[in-house]
User: Fold these one by one.
Assistant:
Number 1:
Amino acid sequence: VWNEVLDRVSEHINAPSLKVWFEGTRPVQLYEDGLEISVPNTFAKEYIESRFRPLLEEALDGVLGQEETSIIVSVGGQGRRAGREETSAETGAESVLSARTPRSLKAKYTFDSFVIGAGNRFAHAAALAVAENPGVVYNPLFIYGGVGLGKTHLLRAVGHYVEDQDPTMRVRYVTCEQFTNDFINSMRDNAPLEFQKRYRENDVLLIDDIQFLENKVETQEAFFHTFNALYEENKQIVIASDRHPKYLQTLENRLVSRFEWGLVTDIQPPDLETRIAILRKKAMMDRLEVDDEVLTFIASKVSTNIRELEGALVRILAYASLYGRQVTVALAEEVLRDILPDSDYREIPIELIQHEVCRYFGISKEDLVGTSRSKAFAYPRQVAMYLSRELTDESLPKIGKAFGGRDHSTVMHATNKIANLINSDRDTFNQIHEITYHIKSKR
Ligand code: ADP
Ligand code: MG
């Protein structure tokens, strides 16, 4: 496993540093959801923990095919390794491993680590409500949205929360893939009861990426029965999907209609403020010191996928440490230019934003940047200023200038106002989302 992890990180760390930092490391112990490695000294431990842990964990996620793995770094592997080999000679490696294997090392995906913003406010509230009262409020809870927007995070958070509140609650998180494999294996082994037991004897069942149930007729059937059994006993079901149930085209209607019995809610991409907040939280949790300016820059460049957002931060830090450089906006720019696809990086001109806003509201550019305070113009103007702040790197004064020479406090006021509206009002949120979509597709 460790070699595979190294293989993966070697794409992001240059060969000399890989040699310097990882030559002396050894895998010590594999856990269900993590890997312990040992390093020669505390200096290496601190260095690896502070610089590479996120990158290593990302790689380990991939290798283990899980989403929440941890890397533990300990000092002085030799003794421990030898010790383990001794014991395993007596008792067999397997049993030693399981005896010492904690079920879970730490929970990364919790409500505490989830940053709330316009795009996920409803989904978060629903998930929390469900976690507080499983089986009572919304059943099933169906969360859908694009890649890397926090669906898995919310599902896991529900699970952790329920377990923390009441350790006797039986919670099971599975991906649709696991469910499918379990089902197929149970057919093969002729053990349908075991399968039923595993899935029906839960208080909370969390099923991730349900879209993969498409085209699997028999597994759908199995899921249908599981669903009914749980539902009838008021057991909580939470489902994540990349799209709305009605677009799960080849799913049986009776399943789709059941998904709509409870609450269906979406997750939308985070706005700039939320993206900055997510990076801040991430930096704080990993105890990384990064200037706000740099975080803001990253957040402005990576806009549609939170996994990539976090990945960008990690890569910039890794790069800086490898080349002994300060983490500055200039450095971030250099690194991001390499890793971002052109389309994400291409600048959006303010004129394009103004053009699309005018088109959307059916007003002229003159009125948009003009002096009229009539709501018909003032509101679109505020929206356009907000979007200029959101989608470009231009400073407040620059934006003000593009809007008929307004000063920066006007732009700030407009930006805050729209940001608040987005947070409190679903229609505004959808409207801004739609305009943003138009702008991005014309870039
Ligand atoms: P999805 O399942 O929707 O593809 P994930 O739940 O795996 O996305 O999220 C991708 C990454 O982004 C994870 O590391 C997750 O912790 C992080 N993330 C997503 N949303 C948030 C949020 N609102 N606050 C903090 N981190 C988030
Ligand atoms: Mg996911």
Note: The chain has a mean pLDDT of 85.
Number 2:
Amino acid sequence: MGRSITENIRKDFPILDTKVYGKDLIYLDNAATTQKPVAVLTAVEDYYKTCNSNVHRGVHLLSQQATAAYEEARHKVGQFLNAAFSHEVIFTKGTTDGINLVASSFGRKFLHVGDSILISAMEHHSNIVPWQMICEERGATLKVIPMDKNGVLQLDVLPALLDESVKLVSVTYVSNSLGTINPVREIISQAHAKNIPVMLDAAQAIQHLPIDVQELDIDFLAFSGHKIYGPTGIGVLYGKEKWLNLIPPYQGGGDMIKTVTFEKTIYNDLPYKFEAGTPDISGAIGLGAAIDYVNYISLDAIQEKEHDLLNYALEQMAEITSLKFIGKAEQRASVISFLIDGVHPYDLGELLDKQGIAIRTGHHCTEPIMDFFDIPGTCRASFAFYNTRSEVDLLVAGIKRAAAILI
Ligand code: PMP
């Protein structure tokens, strides 16, 4: 168990002291990006102050130090995910980049005319569009696991969907719009029973749920550093060694090669084969510091606090009669999408903003979900462990005040 989370934790996040329009910031847009603790800010600053240098190519001390720090960050990520090998951890720009890497590399190698990729009805655009693009290129089709009106995947149709055309399943672990935690173990086990590999979009899971890639037996998994208290611009693609060796490089350039002549290039070993060009060194180091920080707080304590905030908010918000929840899965992360009858989400979001309350409004890069519910968008409040019950109270009071003005 980690330390219990008290309001003291907020001191670790300087931005939480910010005033907006003269009011205390209430930051409830954590599903879009999380705030950064001092430990992460310091790690990034220290890197630039003390060992800024390029990695993997310098004989000089600074370059060796930068390389060691960068590789240590990879090792930390590997341990956090319980990867069998550090070289199964590829640094990317983020979840989007990781999914594009797999779509492009796996697709070029394994997708043929008549094949298909299976995703779900609750994917972020970044787990739809890259697959559409590669399917179009390869003459394959995209198939979709449907969901019900509660925002729960309908797994009863999964056996039929997993026919022999399916070459890969790619689903989100947690929905960014609905908060639903998907039964990924069941999906993985059904797919594996038919020898179909599975990719997880863990953008909304990595900061909430312990993830053990070996226990999950997942083939590929992508996440973004900025959703787990790390910097923007850095992300991770985990891939089983077997798959990463089977698929071709995504991009060509420096670092991903062993030798180059005009006639032939020999590609580098894992993980460098997938890391062309100078990587985001400070980002990786910052992500390593974020993982240390999360380990220090502990995911157990984070989950406990976030569950409390989620349940408290659901209870309080349910008392607003004009409020409708979008997504009612029992298994869910600390994300709440809602609408107020007769009020456009954007108008509510704007009025809350003027009260210092930052929520997200719109389609949340999940237009198919909005089409499914036949709505233009939602208001979304998403909580992190540094939020408090009194912030939830202010959200609820803010919604009531805004609704009184708008209805
Ligand atoms: N998938 C999900 C479920 C997400 O929530 C997000 C970020 N909103 C992404 C993918 C894309 O992440 P990024 O923009 O950091 O690449």
Note: The chain has two domains: 9-30+298-406, 41-295.
